[in-house]
Amino acid sequence: MKIIFISSEVVPFAKTGGLADVAGSLPKALKGIGHDVRVYLPRYKKIKPEKFLPGSKVPIYFFEHEKYFGSREELYQVKGVDYPDNLERFSAFCQSVFPFLKKLGWIPDVIHCNDWQSALVIAYLKVIYKDDLLFKRTAAVYSIHNMGYLGMFPKEKLPLTGLSWDQFKPEALEFWGNIALTKAGFVYADVINTVSETYAQEIQTKEFGHGLDGLLRARSADVFGIVNGIDYDIWNPATDKNIPKRFSPATLSLKIGNKIELQKHNGLPQKKETPVIGLITRLADQKGFDILSGALQGIMDEHCQIVVLGVGDKKYHDLLLKMKRNYPDHIGVNLSFDASLAELIYAGADMFMMPSRYEPCGLGQLISFKYGTIPVVRKTGGLADTVHDFNSRTGEGEGFVFEEYSSRALLAAVKRAIETFHKKTLWKPLQEKIMQLDYSWDASAKKYVSLYMKALGKIGIAAL
Ligand code: ADP
């Protein structure tokens, strides 16, 4: 099968979140099971182009545009403020796809777009290229990695997408008097996908649907969920070159060396018996900082340390800096995007906290598993699918889970985790167990192939 995977971020070239991880690894896994998959991405300023996705034979193509991408330091925004021409930028990116494919002389069976930045490609396929014989046998799959980002713009900008005003209606791109580019995917894709089964259900509800739940309910038969994998070529404590002490389930005792380094790096007392809770996240409302700030005093009373790595909203930067001033011996605050520090945190922390309000899939808990770092999570989206509450009697479960979105419930879960941490006969087997869970992309890639077949089925192609 020929698949073009279109994404605004791809590891290791450009990343702000989980989409980049997916785009950097799913294509490799698809290639591994014999498919001709290729990746398409804008060339931002810092990117040095390569011919293949590193570590693979997956061809990668860069859309070059000096004004819109080549001169931009960041992907979408600077210091929390969006670039004012994001619609123009990503319309140009999407418009370039079809002329590019024609020039390449390579017509895909499936176009797989991701999030609002590439959603317009699907509208172009189904509206502008509808009668183009070259693309008659090409199906479209739209994956949503986070419903919180709709790609909303004022309606006056619609003509800049290259679509006509007849797309300004609720059954197309209109969204409460504005336009939402994500709708180009939701309305026109042959199948819609998101990154966990629970989230696929949640986005069809008012609470998580961000105003599009009605549309998604109407397309319910075409909405699927496939949990992300992670790339164990990158995330593996036995081979990770960025951590001071490599370890595996058989050499778990070496993990402590990373913890000591992590404490040192954060100016925290270097104590083996003090549990360290890691947090690596975009500092956004979605990620649960409001309940965390309410629980913090209580967590500190438990004699533990917290190490945070993140960038995002200014209010959370301020909040974290204030916490650091109040609890200098208990909290490490790193307000940056730092891939190697992230690895040190995954490797050195005892627990990893994700108190998310909502979480489409979540990669942090899957990476934590591999590093023997026990997740403490809220039961939502992909977190609910991958982490079940630890039962000290039966040994079942993979972490500590709370359901109610409140500081109280979060604190109770942290307390249970810390209590268990001090019982080594429970903690160590739990670590060994989660390190051996298999969240590699292989299983998920096969599910994507079935999804692509469903999409082809929708345009009347039964088999390839
Ligand atoms: P989201 O896509 O909502 O940001 P995910 O959990 O799906 O959340 O993916 C986040 C990914 O980004 C993880 O791989 C995480 O380690 C990484 N990450 C987030 N913030 C940072 C940061 N400040 N520095 C380094 N890596 C980060």
From TrEMBL:
Its EC number is 2.4.1.21. Residues 265-419 form the Glycosyl transferase family domain. It holds the Pfam family Glycos_transf_1. Pathway: Glycan biosynthesis; glycogen biosynthesis. It catalyses: [(1->4)-alpha-D-glucosyl](n) + ADP-alpha-D-glucose = [(1->4)-alpha-D-glucosyl](n+1) + ADP + H(+). Keywords: Glycogen biosynthesis, Glycosyltransferase, Transferase. ADP-alpha-D-glucose binds at K15. InterPro entries: Glyco_trans_1, GS/SS, Starch_synth_cat_dom. It is an enzyme of class 2 (transferase). GO terms for biological process: glycogen biosynthetic process. Residues 2-217 form the Starch synthase catalytic domain. GO terms for molecular function: alpha-1,4-glucan glucosyltransferase (ADP-glucose donor) activity; alpha-1,4-glucan glucosyltransferase (UDP-glucose donor) activity. NCBIfam families: glgA. Belongs to the glycosyltransferase 1 family. Bacterial/plant glycogen synthase subfamily. Synthesizes alpha-1,4-glucan chains using ADP-glucose. This is Glycogen synthase. It comes from candidate division WOR-1 bacterium RIFCSPHIGHO2_01_FULL_53_15. The lineage of its organism: Bacteria, Bacillati, Saganbacteria.
